[in-house]
C-alpha cells in the first residue's frame, strides 16, 4: 500500500510508492519515438495488456477490445490506490497517511504515432470531455480532495511510453503547491479587490507582447515571469474555479486554442518534450476561497540544476516576449 509522508519542516507531502519499483524498463527513454509500437500496451489489439477500462469511446466491439478511439484505464503501477481510508498516523515527530486515491491513464488515440497537435479539434474536444468526465466522477468520492491531470510528452518530460496519453492522480489532500497558489490569489484579492488571473488576462490582452493565441473564450500567453523557455499558459477569459464545470462550447474553444498552441510549440521547437498540467480548484474549497482554473504547458528545454533546487529561483534564458513572438510566427 502506498504511503504519504509529511516533511514536518516544510509541510510537503511525499508519496512513497513502492509498487512503482516493479515497473518494467522495456519502454524507458531509450526507446522513445516510434520504435515501441509493436509491443505497446496502448495500441489497438493490445487491450489485454492493460487493466480493464474505466471509460472508452468505441464505434464497435465490446469493452476491452479494439474499435475504440479513446480509452481510460487504471495505471498498472499506480502511485495511489483506491482501497481503504485516508487515515493518518503519527510516529514521533513524523506524520503519515494511507496512500488512498486514484491513478488513471487516458489513452488519447489508437494511433501510436499521432501527437496531440496533429489531432483534429473534434478529437481533442473528445479528449477534454474524457478529462472532464473523470474529474466529475472522482469528485463524488469523499476521500478525494484534489485531482491533478497532466500530460508528459517525451522521455525527458517523464513519459515512459511514447504512445500519446495523459494521466490523472487523485489525492486525499490538497497539494502544497495548490495551497500556496490559493494563498497567493487571496493575497492579491485582498490588496487589489480583483482576481489575479482575470487581471492578468486583461493586462496581456492590452499589452499583447506575450500573447501566443486567443479566441472567444481563452487566451494563451507566455507568463511575465516564465520559469522556463516557451512556458505557455492557457487561461479562460471568464472567471471559473473548476475545469470540470466547463460547458461544451467552452471545451470546443479550448480544443481549438490547445491544438494551435501545441502545434506552434511543435513546429517552432521541433517537437520538444513538455509537461502539460491542468490547474483546477480543490474539490471542496473553504468558504470564501477563490481560484481561476488554467492550463500550464512547460517545455523541457533547460535543466533544473543545483542553484534552482537550492534557492527556488529559476533561470530562463529566453524572455517570454521573444518566445511568444516566435510562436506567433508559426501561424
β-sheet strand percentage: 15-25%
Rg: 20 Å
Low-confidence stretches are 25-35
Give the strand line-up of the largest sheet. 3-4-7-9-8-13-14-12-11-10
Global morphology: globular
CATH class of the largest domain: Alpha Beta
Instruction: Please give the domain count.
Output: 2
User: Order of helices and strands, N to C?
Assistant: EEEEEEEHEEHHEEEHEEHH
What is the CATH topology descriptor of the largest domain?
Answer: HIT family, subunit A
CATH H-level superfamily of the largest domain: HIT-like
By DSSP, the count of extended strands is 14
> Main β-sheet, in a few words?
10 strands, antiparallel
Structural class: alpha+beta
Ends distance? 48 Å
Mean pLDDT: 92
Q: Helical region count?
A: 6
Characterise this structure.
This protein has two domains: 3-18 and 30-176, HIT family, subunit A, CATH 3.30.428; 179-328, HIT-like (HIT family, subunit A, 2-Layer Sandwich), CATH 3.30.428. Helix content is 26%, strand content 22%. It contains six helices and 14 strands. The chain has a ten-stranded antiparallel beta sheet with strand order 3-4-7-9-8-13-14-12-11-10, with helices on both faces. Strands 2-1-6-5 form a four-stranded antiparallel beta sheet, with no helix packed on it. A hairpin with a 3-residue loop joins strand 10 (211-214) and strand 11.
